[in-house]
Amino acid sequence: MKRKNLDKNPFSTPKGYFDNFEDNLMAKLSKETSRIPENTGFTVPPSYFDDFQSKLNAKLKKDTEVKNDKKVKVIQLKPYKKFIGIAASIAALVLMAIGIDWNSKDAIEFADIANSDIESYFENHDLDLSVDEIAEVIPVDGMEIYDFIDISMNEENILDYLNENVEDIEELNIENNE
Question: Model-level pTM?
Answer without folding.
Answer: 0.22
